Every structure is written in structure tokens, then in C-alpha cells.
Amino acid sequence: MSTPLRNRRYVAFLGGFLLVALLLAGGASYLASGSPDGLDAVTQTGCSETEGSLQGQCIAQNAGDHATAESPFADYAVGGDDTLTGVAGVVGVIATLVVAGGLFWVLRRRSGP
């Protein structure tokens, strides 16, 4: 197989992979549950939420916010807006690919001849 053909197939594969990942992240995120954390839901069993505080008897009554609760992508949304879960998914895929690609590039260069 010639090198240009191999490079075209490699670029086509990466392009297809990126397109599928972005479509899944952007499209499937809108179909996902608003409460995907089952452990969080179980710890709130026996309590009801009233104006942001839990009332009743449950494990989560003494829990505090996570250290990144005020971050721009907390709770699978952008800036606390639950309608932007798809945007958060697309940004997450891009960030993951950039970090993973950067690590791969750095590690590949170090182990090369």
C-alpha cells in the first residue's frame, strides 16, 4: 500500500471517528437523564427538596457541594442551564480528544528512534 493512500485512509478514519463522537456527544446528551447519578438519587431517598435544602431523613442531608460545583460545566450542563447538555457533551469530547491527543503525541515522540 502506498504511503499517500495510507495517509488518506488514516485521515478519513480520524475524521469519521471525530464526526461520530461529536454526533453522539451532541445528540445523545439531549436524550440522557437529567439525574444520571444513581448514587446521588439513592442517598436522597427519604428526603424532599424545598428551596434548595433537603427536608426529612436521608444520607444526603449532611452532604456538601463538590469542589467543582461552581465550575462552568458542573452537573452535565453549561453554566447551570440544563438545556445545554449537548453543548457540554461536545465540549467534553473536544477537550478529551485534545488532552488524549496531546499525551499520545508527547509519549510517541519520547519513545521514537
From TrEMBL:
The molecule here is called: Cobalt/nickel transport protein
Query: Superkingdom of the source?
Result: Bacteria
Domain PDGLE per the UniProt entry, residue ranges: 13-109
Query: Does the UniProt entry include the keyword Cytoplasm?
Result: no
The organism named in the record is: Actinomycetospora corticicola
| Cellular compartment(s) | Cell membrane
What are the record's GO terms for cellular component?
plasma membrane
Renumbered to this chain, the signal peptide range is: none
UniProt keyword terms in alphabetical order: Cell membrane, Membrane, Transmembrane, Transmembrane helix
Q: Which Pfam families match?
A: PDGLE (PF13190)
Segments passing through the bilayer: 86-107
> By its UniProt entry, which InterPro entries does this protein fall under?
PDGLE_dom (IPR025937)
